[in-house]
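Q: Structure tokens for this one, please.
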Amino acid sequence: MSTTSTTSMTTKQIAGRLKELCSKGEYDQAKSELFTDNAVSIEQEASPMFDKETTGLKAMREKRNKFEAMVEKVHSN
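A: Here is the predicted structure, written as tokens:
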């Protein structure tokens, strides 16, 4: 769940924090800290497995879980 903060961040600060978290593989933490609860994930095209747009952090997590369940093997990090 996203947390509300009273501290404003510049775009540069947000980008730096996003890079920091993602470089450590902390994608869920990045979304929790930096995304709004009603964030939208947009794919280039809809597919039989995924809609073009997914709205909300919960739905985005479910989408990620669905994708990860489809992955048979990861060749690199």
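A few notes: The CA atoms of residues 50 and 63 lie 8 Å apart. The longest helix spans residues 57-70.
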